[in-house]
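Q: Please design a sequence for this.
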């Protein structure tokens, strides 16, 4: 006699509905639910990371648009870009943003007005009239905080502006010792698609609003780019597009120590991430 299919045998089995589920059936249900839950958690975790990356790129896209609109309204002159503790705080130190970030209780770490309120900070916050939302200056994946009394408050900014761009900016080795020049006009940017403008900087590297790159010294990394998206960082370019670029050398993306600053200005022989940054800081596709 031909055997009945397994599923048909199950259907033909008689069972008193008052008996409920057997222990084996309950274990099977629990196992399936556990598997589905683990899949959903993994999927949601990846989605959160993906959402943060999308938000970060959108923020940078709006920031570089504001950077461009400022130049258009000022006869092609690029926004002020200055380094130092006093950047953006006095008439002699104008900068696109004000505020020196660290992990102290300084109000500059959390002061959103320093980013967008040009009336309150007339020597800083120059993009405020074009970019009104301070949230655009902070990658949502940057979790850095500072302690104020008994409260931990998120820091205000995760972005910096390329030191080869902007009025009052300078090169690391000085103009006399550099083969590259700081560009102060839109018209001076020969290859806008190859020159990054505003990028995410690591939480333990960022301080003023200027991102240092030394294109004159091979393998030299001054400031460290952000890597908030699974080892990748977001950068906006002078033509308006935004990229998420992966850093492949672990020396470019060392382990983050929350609440601590890292040593900057390091020479990293063989780190091709550094060469990529140098090339795209000055807008040249060839190795410096």
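A: Design:
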């Amino acid at each position: 006699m031909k055997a009945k299919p397994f599923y048909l045998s199950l259907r033909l089995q008689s069972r008193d509905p008052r008996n409920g589920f057997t222990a084996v059936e309950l274990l099977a249900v629990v196992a399936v639910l556990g598997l589905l839950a683990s899949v959903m958690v993994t999927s949601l975790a990846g989605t959160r990371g993906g959402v943060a990356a999308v938000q970060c790129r959108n923020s940078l896209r709006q920031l570089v648009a504001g950077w461009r609109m400022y130049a258009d309204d000022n006869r092609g002159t690029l926004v002020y870009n200055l380094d130092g503790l006093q950047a953006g705080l006095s008439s002699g130190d104008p900068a696109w943003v004000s505020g020196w970030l660290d992990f102290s209780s300084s109000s500059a770490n959390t002061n959103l007005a320093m980013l967008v309120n040009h009336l309150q900070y007339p020597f800083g916050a120059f993009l405020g009239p074009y970019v009104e939302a301070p949230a655009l200056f902070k990658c949502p994946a940057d979790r850095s905080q500072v302690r104020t009394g008994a409260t931990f408050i998120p820091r205000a900014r995760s972005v910096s502006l390329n030191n080869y761009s902007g009025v009052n900016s300078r090169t690391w080795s000085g103009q006399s010792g550099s083969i590259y020049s700081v560009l102060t006009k839109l018209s001076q940017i020969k290859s806008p698609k190859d020159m990054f403008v505003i990028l995410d900087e690591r939480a333990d590297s960022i301080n003023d609003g200027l991102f240092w790159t030394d294109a004159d010294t091979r393998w030299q990394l001054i400031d460290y780019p952000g890597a908030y998206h699974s080892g990748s960082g977001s950068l906006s370019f002078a033509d308006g597009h935004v990229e998420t670029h992966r850093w492949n050398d672990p020396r470019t993306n060392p382990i983050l120590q929350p609440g601590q600053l890292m040593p900057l200005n390091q020479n990293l022989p063989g780190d091709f991430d550094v060469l990529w940054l140098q090339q795209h800081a000055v807008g040249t596709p060839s190795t410096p």
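Q: Thanks. Anything notable?
A: Residues 23-73 form the longest helix (51 residues). The longest strand covers residues 232-237.
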